[in-house]
Amino acid sequence: MVKYIVRRFLELVLTIFLIATATFFLLEAVPGDPLTARADKLNTEARQTLYARYALDRPVMERYVTTMTNMCKGDFGESFVYAGQTVSGLISSRLPVSARLGIQQMLLGVTIGLLLGVVAAMKHGSIWDYLIVGCSVLLISVPHLIFGLLLQKVFAGDLGLYPTIGWPSGDDLWFGGWEYTILPTLTGCFSYIASYSRLLKASMLDVIGKDYILTAESKGLSQFAIITRHILRNSFIPVITRLPMSVGMCITGSFFIESIFSIPGIGQYYVTAVNNQDLSIVLGETVLLSILYIVILFVTDILYAVVDPRISMPGVQSD
């Protein structure tokens, strides 16, 4: 077990290093730089001072070594567009916003999706099955942008039940201001409902026909016990495989949802940073989100063995 964890940790470090390196040189390959618009309004001396401040007057390899060294110390540099603001500060102020929105979307969407998947599988061929599948296809086919605008018009505009835009801040950042979070949460949870209900239904139908399910039925086990102990447990492998992508998406935020409801999250700011060639922001967010996603993948590997004892990790002896 220890050897497996150490090996995976070294792989994580190497992967993050390669991602940071590739991102740095890809950003350097983009024509122009983030200071061009500001530098055009300055005289020669002021322009040189500006470029020296952000080290853009140095050779690429020198800046690469400096950037990688600083990142190892936890310093991701200063924003090129927002002078005086550090990358770490901007991310720490915006990431909790996207995290709360994404976590609420995922918890609500995945929970409802799994419940509907169970119903569709156990009522296969019935009106409930067709209704759930039809709704899933509809929900996954309509973009977030359409759902957001529709909910905003009906519940915020016509009925006036919820605010049109905004997001809780300060003491209410995590557990307050629920009226601001309802519509964005509903907008983002529909895709989770659609994908997880269809995924679990297909996985359960594949398991239901197995011999050990027939054996459990012949032993006189109740339907509830068969579903919870045998069918669901063996059907969750595809669900767990999909969870890392969902967790990564829920943390990084949704650009369209954050734009529609004017939510100051990291998703909207990341796209803005790319458009503005804010190199430090793009590099810092890419590396930090890569670390998050890779750690989630590592945890998922462990969950495989928890859900299905037949799966063993390399280097770990199974009973």
From TrEMBL:
Protein localization: Cell membrane
Keyword field contains Amino-acid biosynthesis: no
Domain of life of the organism encoding this protein: Bacteria
Gene Ontology BP annotations: transmembrane transport
Topological type in the membrane: Multi-pass membrane protein
Domain ABC transmembrane type-1: 95-304
Pfam families: BPD_transp_1 (PF00528), BPD_transp_1_N (PF19300)
Record's keyword terms, sorted: Cell membrane, Membrane, Transmembrane, Transmembrane helix, Transport
Family of this protein: Belongs to the binding-protein-dependent transport system permease family.
This protein's name: Oligopeptide transport system permease protein
Organism whose genome encodes this protein: Butyrivibrio fibrisolvens
